[in-house]
Each structure stands twice: as structure tokens, then as C-alpha cells.
């Protein structure tokens, strides 16, 4: 699911069993990724692999682990994106944005 490299997984592969339980396919996980160089953080500022990256990934893991269902995950991911991503929810793949 990680190939090709250079892409950020919003559905962290380490939590693939949870996403499968929620009915998310491997194909969806692969399709809903972002180019790593486009993932930039705020609060604190930084980028994927740099300052703030570990904190952001731990926050994403917490969102997944504490969500009761996929719709809760998506809602919480969007709230997180507005607070932590430069560009807010527009920095998420279109299929992950709430309308």
C-alpha cells in the first residue's frame, strides 16, 4: 500500500486493520494520499519529516484510535487539518474533505 514512495498516507498503514473494519478498501487508502512535499504544518510550523512531523503523526494516530467510526475519523481529520495544516482542509485529498 505504500508504493510508490513519496506520498503521505492519511489512512496510516499501521492502522489498516481498523480502516478495513470501517469498510475502507486498500485502493481507497492508496488513492487518498498526498505528495509529501505538499504536507506542511502550522502550530508549530514545519513539514513532513521535519519539525512537527512526529507530533502530527501521533495526533493522527490518536484521531484514528479514538474514533468510533469512519465518519467520526473524517470529521476529526478535517478539524485537525484546519488547525494543523497549512491550507487547512484544502491540503487534504479531495475525497477526505467535508463539504
Keywords:
single chain; 99 residues; two-stranded antiparallel sheet; 4 helices; globular
Walk me through what this model shows.
The chain has 99 residues and is mostly helical. It has helices spanning 16-21, 26-31, 53-66, 70-84, and strands spanning 7-9, 33-35, 40-41, 46-47. It has one domain (7-94). It has four helices and four strands. Strands 1-2 form a two-stranded antiparallel sheet. A two-stranded antiparallel ribbon has the order 3-4. Helix 3 (53-66) packs antiparallel against helix 4 (70-84). It is globular and about 35 Å long.
Low-confidence stretches: none
Largest sheet: 2 strands, antiparallel
Share of residues in strands: 5-15%
User: How many domains make up the coordinates?
Assistant: 1
Mean pLDDT: 91
Helix percent band: 40-55%
Could you provide a short overview of the structure?
With 99 residues, this protein is mainly α. It has helices spanning 16-21, 26-31, 53-66, 70-84; strands spanning 7-9, 33-35, 40-41, 46-47.
Secondary-structure map:
Layout: E1 7-9, H1 16-21, H2 26-31, E2 33-35, E3 40-41, E4 46-47, H3 53-66, H4 70-84
Antiparallel strand pairs: 1-2, 3-4
